[in-house]
């Protein structure tokens, strides 16, 4: 049991879900900005953006639930975080999603800077979303072929939402940014866990690699 009386499995699922759904905020906010085509924050309506993309959101959430074996309570975290409800998109949040790569220029809200933050942020948050999703699926011991196919749908929907890179591009970023650290000789991952990550990578590669 955890300190608040919950089973360890429930606590672990919540942590994994927050790792998955955290980057979703970047995906939808960046997607709403990219959808304007102007990269002017005054033109952004997250409510309108989400209203027109219910199919992508539903597919993403269904794929996460299938691959990661999250129950209804755990899935509700996606809504509790507030990313899927109308809210303002600010330059400060884009700076956060892009990892502060641009620094804080005097004209943070200029279209050129906003577009750059969106480009960087989409790469970063989609890669984090993929890694968190694979990690949760491996932890749930979801069979790799079934889980990776569900996550392929998640990645396809997330890339469409973001208006950013292709799934194959995100897969390559994930390999060099995250997978190599799981598989390196000094990693604390067990042999079984390494094998599971390799199996997921194999199916995702067969799906997306050019």
Task: Write up what this structure looks like.
This protein is mostly helical. It is built from ten helices and no strands. The chain has helices spanning 8-36, 46-51, 54-68, 72-75, 77-80, 91-97, 111-139, 144-162, 167-183, 191-208. The longest helix has 29 residues, at 8-36. The protein is globular and about 50 Å long. The termini are far apart. Mean pLDDT is 92; it is low at 1-10.
Question: Brief description of this entry?
Answer:
The protein is mostly helical. It has helices at 8-36, 46-51, 54-68, 72-75, 77-80, 91-97, 111-139, 144-162, 167-183, 191-208.
Q: Can you tell me the residue ranges where pLDDT is under 50 for at least 5 consecutive residues?
A: 1-10
Shape: globular
Please tell me the overall pLDDT: 92
Proportion in β-strands: under 5%
Please report the distance between the alpha carbons of the first and last residues: 46 Å
Question: What integer value in Å does the Rg equal?
Answer: 17 Å
**Number of distinct helices:** 10
- Compressed to H and E, one letter per element, the order equals HHHHHHHHHH
Helix/strand/pairing category: mainly alpha
The count of strands amounts to 0
Largest sheet: none
Give the helix proportion (percent range): over 70%
How would the blueprint of this fold be written?
Layout: H1 8-36, H2 46-51, H3 54-68, H4 72-75, H5 77-80, H6 91-97, H7 111-139, H8 144-162, H9 167-183, H10 191-208
């Amino acid at each position: 049991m955890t300190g608040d009386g919950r089973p360890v499995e429930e606590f672990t699922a919540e942590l994994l879900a927050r790792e998955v759904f955290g980057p979703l905020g970047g995906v939808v906010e960046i997607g709403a900005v990219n959808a304007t085509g102007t990269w002017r924050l005054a033109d952004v309506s997250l409510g309108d953006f989400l209203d027109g993309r219910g199919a992508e959101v539903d597919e993403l959430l269904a794929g996460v639930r299938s691959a990661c074996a999250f129950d209804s309570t755990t899935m509700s975290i996606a809504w509790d975080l507030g990313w899927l409800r109308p809210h303002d998109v600010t330059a400060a949040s884009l700076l956060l999603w892009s990892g502060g790569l641009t620094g804080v220029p005097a004209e943070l809200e200029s279209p050129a800077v906003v577009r750059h933050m969106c480009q960087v942020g989409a790469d970063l948050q989609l890669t984090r979303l993929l890694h968190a999703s694979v990690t949760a699926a491996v932890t749930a011991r979801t069979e790799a072929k079934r889980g990776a196919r569900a996550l392929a749908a998640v990645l396809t929907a997330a890339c469409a939402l973001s208006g950013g890179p292709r799934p194959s591009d995100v897969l390559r970023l994930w390999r060099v940014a995250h997978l190599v650290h799981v598989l390196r000789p000094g990693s604390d991952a067990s042999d079984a866990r390494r094998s599971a990550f390799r199996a997921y990578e194999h199916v995702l590669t067969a799906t997306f690699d050019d």
